[in-house]
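Sample entry was shown:
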Amino acid sequence: MTSAAPGVPPAASAEAALTAAGRAAPLGTALLPPPDTPVAIVRRLFSRIVTLCWVELRKIRHDRTELYTRAIQPALWLLIYGEVFTKIHAIPTPGGIPYLAYLAPGILAQSALFIAIFYGIQIIWERDAGVLTKLMVTPTPRAALISGKAFAAGVRSVVQATVVVVLAAILGVTLTDDPLKLLGAACVVVLGSAFFSCLSMTIAGLALSRDRLMGIGQAITMPLFFSSSALYPEKIMPGWLQAISKCNPLSYEVDALRGLLIGTPAHLGLDLTVLAIATVVGVAASAALLPRLAR
């Protein structure tokens, strides 16, 4: 003879409860969570992007060597190239501003480019270490993974850009002190770096190895730099180089930075639109190639 444990309802009562629950809601919907609203989906996607960006930035705390070593090249450009060409007046500048002031935003964009263009090496290293495979099986969308890394590269570039701005100020370059313009310049640097890091990750998805990526990155970095308006105005370029410059996102980044930092005439609306569209296309291309890289 057996007795029911205290507090445990009889089987008939449990069946009755399940039957009542089934009558209360259609079959297959009672145990499903409520559908996500578009606002909830966007909020969750943004949260994952910010989290991944924060994870990337925490790596700087463990090794700041890259930030220090990458500050050397911009310093040489400003100290040597900028000072020499300022003295010889070889390059005409809009409004007759000193060439060093004209050059500073271009070197700022260059330093951000050099950080972002080799960012694909990191994602290849994560693949080799098995980290990328683990990230791919999480519910985080591939676009969020790429966006987190891209904007982390942007924030790293802002840190580098701060070094260039301080150095330019020490050399006597008069830059804006308007907080809104400085914030706008930081946003331009983030957008430009996000695009070039996506370009690097897209190349990584095609090259699949660090050696190939290094070779391709070195092959395209200087042409991107010299075909932009970072060193000289577009109007003194040959016609064929002007056409290339108009297709180069770095030219739009430099134009926006000059307009914000030193007050030269700029097309901020066009510059920001081109950089935003280029970044979106870069994220889409990198996300599409991510499974190929992870294999």
Q: What stands out?
A: The chain has 13 helices and no strands.
